[in-house]
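Moderator note: this is an archived Q&A kept for reference. The question asked for a predicted structure of one protein chain; the sequence and the answer are reproduced below.
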Amino acid sequence: MRPILMLAGLLAACQAEPQASASASANSSPPPAPSVSPVSGLPLAPLEIRAGGRVHRFTVELARTGEEQAYGLMNRAQLGPNEGMLFPFLPARPASFWMKNTIIPLDMIFVRANGSIARIAANTEPLSLDSVGVSEPVVAVLEIPGGRAAELGIDQSAQVTWAGGPKL
């Protein structure tokens, strides 16, 4: 009789464990977002673009040093639809970029100190050595997947904010 009771106890225990795990995972919060990009090793930051009454949220890699900014998104085979790279400048300055060794098209968004957009260079040509820029001072350039700004209705009337950047 004892072996039967032991077997019944083991079977009950086997059934209880999956239920406890399912319950625990349903109540647990998602793992925290990584603080650095697994691809570049650069710090990640949330960024928002307010356009046409909507808020578009991106997670961007912060290219803060001259070396990081010079390398940018070179040799990157893909960029998710809500991902990008931000090139912050202190103090604000005119900015000029090229697409050397960049194999995917990008939208370059040039951001003024008040968060407004000075220019959107849409679908920049991969591998081009042509200069893309603005002559007025900007505090940042945001690069997102080519065509994404138009897809989301982001134009020069939009406002850009990020942690440590312009506040509205």
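Archived answer notes: The CA atoms of residues 7 and 13 lie 10 Å apart.
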